């Protein structure tokens, strides 16, 4: 291995402060906007909250996937993934404003048209308790892995890798179960009469796709300069590109399964969700998703040359991050428009940018705390061998 | 497949002791202008594919065409069966139910892609091939044990019985054999 230090560079510190100021200014503008339109602010806030919470959780899940399966692809992005998983602490903090916005966001607060059983589950105290439990479990997982990984840098303790592997299996199960429930609470309950058993997995698949795209963008940026430019090669990008293709296909598969089952079933309590997204201009968003969320990335990622080209793969991954936001918009915002007509409020864009700026700032801050590679990992040398 | 002027032999087979020697010899032969040649080794030697030129792009293209043909054919099959040949009303759904046709369309695309990748690979490799002249050289049996062989074919425009043999001998070949048909 070349004798480099892998200390995070000055550019990450610059990114931290730039992101912080963008986030702080955007949030300040939106808080002013909240005085004029409180309901709109909280609805936009939910968008930003879901997008960036999903990013941190997806990164944690991919990190656990790597502990279970190992491989060079995960070794080069492990530190970004760990830093992103620690941003869950920020999102737990940013859940607090959401707690005050529950009446502005969720129609079940009015208790109209719901059965007694539904109301036993969908009420504000129980909703807040459940969300607190989800965050407690996620934070426990994220910081357990984080502290083991930190000890690995200094202690040279071979048992740590075994511990991380042992926790990763149950960790992924716990993540899947809690995130399924959280997706029911946070997203599906926007339309409390509708349910889809595939929905939780669909949200999880989307989070994995967002996280993989984010990891690729960060790795391409880091690898454009020393010290990672010495290490990261087409081999790593090729593997990450294949995983991105996998997650694109998982998303398409689950989305299509949900649509096909509901269309074939043709039941009165299931189809309104899609009917609402087929009228008033929402159809174009849905068609755009089929094109940009599946067909274009799918066919581009079939190419081996594109997956091995840092610039092309990085651009495609950045594009996927935007498309992920469009998917989240299509899933949530139609429930907020009573007239069923497509609308785009400026806060729907600015609040996610604001939360994203703060999120990126915390991410960059966390990334700077440790070397850019897990230097104490016994499998590191193998991962860095050249082709 | 009989050419008008069939060369007297299939070509010249050179035996090398190590993968490095074979690698160097192949590079040298290519730089001398030879193009009709192949290597035979007991295990995959890294970099040999690049010297002889790999057919990755051609297999990819065949697979893509096979996949598209399978998908379109799969869709057309369902369209013809459900909407043309035997129209059947299933719970009031349209005869041309695009959504319901997608799973089979996808499966047929995968089948078409997989079959064309496999068969295309065999076709480009010239397999199956029950007879190959290199086996006429007794020493060639070592290609599956611990020796490395480079065969320059007589149909190569640069091939010259004497000159090619001298070139191979000059490249540290352990032995150079005529390959009879």
List keywords for this structure.
heterodimer, A: 387 residues, mainly alpha, 15 helices, 76% helix, 0% strand, B: 181 residues, alpha+beta, Alpha-Beta Plaits, four-stranded antiparallel beta sheet, elongated
Distance between the termini of chain A: 14 Å
Radius of gyration of chain B, in angstroms, nearest whole number: 25 Å
Structural shape of chain A: globular
Query: What's the helix-strand series of chain A?
Result: HHHHHHHHHHHHHHH
Reported CATH architecture of the largest domain in chain B: 2-Layer Sandwich
Q: Classify the beta-strand content of chain A into a percent band.
A: under 5%
Specify the CATH class of the largest domain in chain B. Answer: Alpha Beta
Structurally, how many domains make up the residues of chain A?
A: 1
Helix/strand order of chain B: EHEHHHEHE
Task: Please report the number of helical segments of chain A.
Answer: 15
Give the CA-CA distance, first to last residue of chain B.
14 Å
| Uncertain spans of chain B | none
Helix content estimate of chain B: 40-55%
Model description:
The complex is a heterodimer of chains A (387) and B (181). Chain A is mostly helical. Chain A has helices spanning 10-36, 38-69, 72-86, 88-105, 116-121, 124-155, 159-186, 199-222, 234-265, 272-276, 282-301, 304-308, 310-332, 346-368, 380-384. Chain A is globular, with a radius of gyration of 21 Å. With 181 residues, chain B is of the alpha+beta class. Chain B has helices at residues 19-31, 48-52, 56-85, 98-125, 161-170; strands spanning 11-16, 37-40, 148-153, 175-179. In chain B, strands 2-3-1-4 form a 4-stranded antiparallel sheet. In chain B, helix 3 runs antiparallel to helix 4 (98-125).
